[in-house]
Amino acid sequence: ARVAESGGGQVQEGGSLRLTCTTSGIILSSFTGNTMSWYRQTPGNERELVASIIPGGGTNYADSVKGRFTISKDNVRRKVFLQMDNMKPEGTAVYYCNVAVEYWGQGTQVTVSS
Description:
The chain contains one helix and eleven strands, in the order βββαββββββββ. By secondary structure, it is mainly β. Strands 2, 4, 5, 6, 9, 10 and 11 form a seven-stranded mixed sheet that branches. The radius of gyration is 13 Å and the shape is globular. It starts with a strand and ends with a strand.
C-alpha cells in the first residue's frame, strides 16, 4: 500500500487547514477494517499521535487538539482527512498519516504563525 499526505501549508493562528491522506494499493476490507491515524513530529521530538479513527467509526484525539481537530475517512475513495480548526503555533509540525499501523506517508509540513 502507498500513503500520501497533502494539504499542509502555512496558516495564521486561529486559522484552518484540511489534510488529506490518499491511499493506494489497499483493498477495501483492509481500509475499512483497520485503524487510521494522524501523527505529528517536530525536530528532536518523537512522533506523537494526534487523532485516530477505528473501524467502527469511533475516534480518539490527543488532549491538545480535542474540540479543534476532526478526523474522518471516505471508504469509497480510501482517503483519510484531518480537519484542523482554531490552529495554534504549537501545532507547527510535520503531519503523517498512518494506515493499519504498518504504512506511513512521507509527511506534510504544517506551519502556524502567531
